[in-house]
Task: inverse folding
């Protein structure tokens, strides 16, 4: 088998001849405790759309653990919550505000008059998108599309965002755009009920209208350019949605991208974990790491998995159940690729959490050695060894994390037969 060294951040391949680490060696039976020092080998991100009491030490510990934190702007622009409390707990944290690029929530209609969300809802009303059957268009339950392809609509919505960002005591470090896609995505049942969205009002459904799709894409780029013109070059912009994951030119406009259901989004045709770690795949994580801007602490390649917990059943005859935490899978991948791991709580909701086991590996000493199916990377105080298995959930790979020569963490699966 070919053995290659992958320099993370650069797509550089070279043949080497020395022996690689075996994924199952050394084979300590018990796990050492890595201690309480927070690992800074890779950045950690968190989303939390319903922040709790910031004076609760447990709540603050979850939020301040992150290097990059995504929060709902309305929670801090419509209440007395203070972002500075989080920054006091972690002065280096970057906090970005959720912003929808195309939809308003129907429940905002009854928000307190004059509030941020109330204003977004009512400002969008003259710009609502309709369908080919004359209904108002939606891309999700309880939401309504507004026509962001109209420059006046973007300007009106950005006016509100900019006003709060510049006048509130709660000022964010950037924006989390939700979301940018190659074409509009709508659940089939909504589409069947309401008809096809028609942004330009020419009677042709979105998916059958090349001119509209082109305008749709150019308007996404305009969002980014117009926000930067208002907020400046140092304002972080993170793109959710598939487009940035497969379009390097578009990704170059932002500081990072969010893999909302890693690796199901962006990797198609083969087992997706395998594709994400295959140097021959055009948007593998080492390649994609070079796409976004680096000015504002990026690139932030935020790996999120929708199934934060689950159960894997071992081989016959016992079929022993093994608990899975998908956060551990994304963190293992991030250690190899310099991506950003994300922490959820055990519920799998968009809520911040803390890794069940902290590492203290220090900085990486170089790139990744690949002797497929084994991937190895050395750090100042340890290493990670990943062995690809199915390449797909629930057992995409096995991993082992060593601190010095001690095994401190491993995947919960039984040994390979």
Result:
């Amino acid at each position: 088998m070919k053995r290659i060294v992958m320099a993370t951040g650069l797509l550089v391949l070279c043949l080497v001849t020395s022996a690689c680490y075996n994924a199952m060696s050394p084979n300590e039976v018990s796990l050492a405790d890595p201690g309480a020092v927070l690992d800074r080998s890779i950045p950690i991100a968190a989303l939390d759309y319903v922040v709790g009491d910031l004076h609760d030490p447990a709540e603050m510990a979850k939020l301040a653990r992150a290097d990059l934190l995504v929060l709902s702007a309305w929670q801090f622009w419509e209440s007395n919550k203070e972002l500075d409390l989080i920054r006091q707990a972690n002065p280096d944290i970057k906090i970005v505000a959720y912003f929808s690029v195309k939809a308003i929530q129907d429940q905002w209609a009854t928000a307190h008059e004059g509030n941020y969300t109330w204003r977004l809802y009512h400002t969008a009303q003259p710009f609502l998108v309709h369908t080919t059957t004359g209904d108002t268009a939606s891309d999700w339950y309880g939401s309504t599309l507004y026509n962001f392809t109209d420059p006046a609509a973007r300007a009106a919505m950005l006016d509100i965002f900019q006003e709060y960002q510049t006048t509130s005591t709660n000022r964010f470090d950037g924006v989390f755009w939700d979301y940018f896609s190659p074409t509009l995505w709508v659940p089939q049942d909504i589409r069947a009920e309401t008809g096809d969205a028609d942004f330009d009002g020419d009677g042709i459904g979105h998916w059958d209208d090349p001119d509209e799709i082109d305008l749709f894409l150019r308007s996404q780029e305009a969002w980014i350019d117009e926000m930067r013109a208002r907020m400046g070059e140092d304002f972080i912009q993170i793109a959710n949605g598939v487009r940035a994951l497969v379009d390097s030119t578009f990704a170059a406009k932002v500081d990072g991208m969010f893999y909302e259901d890693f690796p199901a989004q962006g990797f198609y045709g083969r087992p997706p974990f395998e594709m994400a770690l295959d140097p021959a795949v055009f948007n593998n994580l080492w390649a994609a790491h070079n796409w976004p801007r680096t000015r504002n602490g990026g690139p932030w390649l935020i790996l999120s998995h929708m199934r934060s917990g689950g159960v894997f059943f071992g081989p016959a005859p016992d079929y022993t159940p093994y608990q899975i935490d998908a956060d551990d899978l994304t963190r293992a991948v991030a250690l190899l690729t310099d991506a950003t791991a994300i922490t959820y709580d055990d519920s799998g909701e968009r809520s911040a959490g803390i890794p069940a086991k902290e590492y203290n590996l220090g900085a990486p000493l170089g790139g990744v050695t690949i002797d497929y199916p084994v991937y190895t990377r050395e750090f100042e105080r340890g290493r990670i060894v990943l062995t690809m298995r199915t390449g797909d959930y629930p057992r995409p790979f096995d991993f082992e994390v060593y601190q010095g020569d001690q095994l401190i963490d491993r995947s919960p699966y039984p040994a390979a037969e």
Residues 9-36 have pLDDT under 50 and may be disordered. The first strand starts at residue 3 and ends at 6. The longest helix spans residues 210-231.
